[in-house]
Amino acid sequence: MMRETAWKSYDEATMKEVFSLADAYKQFISQCKTERECVKEAVRMAEAAGYVDLEEVIKSGKILKANDKVYANNMGKTLALFHIGQEPLENGMNILGAHVDSPRLDLKQVPLYEDGELAQLDTHYYGGIKYYQWVTLPLAIHGVVVKKDGSVIDVCIGEDDNDPVVGISDLLIHLSADQMTKKASRVIEGEDLNVMAGSIPLKGEEKEAVKANVLRILKDRYDMDEDDFLSAELEVVPAGKARDYGLDRSMVMGYGHDDRICAYTSLYALLKQNEVQRTAVCLLVDKEEVGSIGATGMQSKFFENSVAEVLDRMNDYSELKVRRALKNSKMLSSDVSAAFDPNYASVMEKNNAAYFGKGIVFNKYTGSRGKSGCNDANAEYLGELRAIMEQEKVFFQTAELGKVDQGGGGTIAYILAQYDMDVIDSGIALHNMHAPWEVASKADIYEATKAYQAFLKHAGTK
Ligand code: MN
Ligand code: MN
Known about the structure:
The protein is 28% helix and 24% strand. It contains 11 helices and 22 strands. The chain binds manganese (II) ion (2 copies).
């Protein structure tokens, strides 16, 4: 049952493909560090591949037919793309899903203050992070500020070589006698993740002159006032580009692999389709890291509504057909897995761990403490997927997230499964999951795109 590494199977031409795909992916995650930036870029890529906005199709009254391509954009944070198939939609869709939000530090609504003649920005962390990993790193600020007149200002500070970066301080080792005795969860506390913003006082200003100077800079550069923070979404993320990792360049180190690595490869696979028998779908969703809630999380009715709109545009709408389309669908719900790490072998069970370079990971179930909260994919569905992967010569592996009693995690799989469709957790294995800089294997990125293409082509066709 030991699975082979994909690397040994690659000839020279394939190696070139593997590395050039990784280059394109590195560019994507270097540029897209928020859910909004991911959706914006995904729309750009989709339009270049012939996709049109579903809203425009609705407005024009155009009827959709086989091979038409549309996308539905939900508030700029969630995207559903449909490549209409030859079969009626009620026969079901082949759906690739992943999330585009990643762990980070969000600026609070009243973030800016001055203390000790230094300007600081207060944050509220988003998703599960180890606080101590986020200090003494170059950080960037990405996001939007919405003015009262509705205008939206895009903010990105810390990515251009000429930009400053920001960061969070840590205590010098010389004075850390008390700190070093604390538990790792308390060494740095969530409330202490304050971002350094400036130290020059504004001339002629008596009170809080350093803060005033930062506000002056924000006014000059973004025409924003202090109270505009109230209607802003500013995310503090690691500054800098994704890089090749390892002396052999076999891996990618970057921010936000979780889960943009599955989002990018899923989108890539969808955009590569020529003609599809069953309607092919890619779902890129927000808010997975905080429970998939809200209008832009997977629990929102957005996807179901979009399916209804698409059926209506095909002149084929009925409530029953919406339900059948969802029920008869098959889904790869993709999210990152933990790759075996020799530094932390004790939390893994080697026979059921994922390994770098062995291809896309299928997790029959996730969950924690006795599979609690998991989506347990049917054996029949796994049988179908194994056959598809073998037919298209895709490297795949199966895994659990660590030892039975070590912890666990959840994904969006269970939400789609509520429609009574076949859903399985799948995805790419990482080192350093949820750390500022995560690591993935280029072979796994490549095999994932092959797996997703094979799935879109064959799933549900037998
Ligand atoms: Mn994830
Ligand atoms: Mn995660």
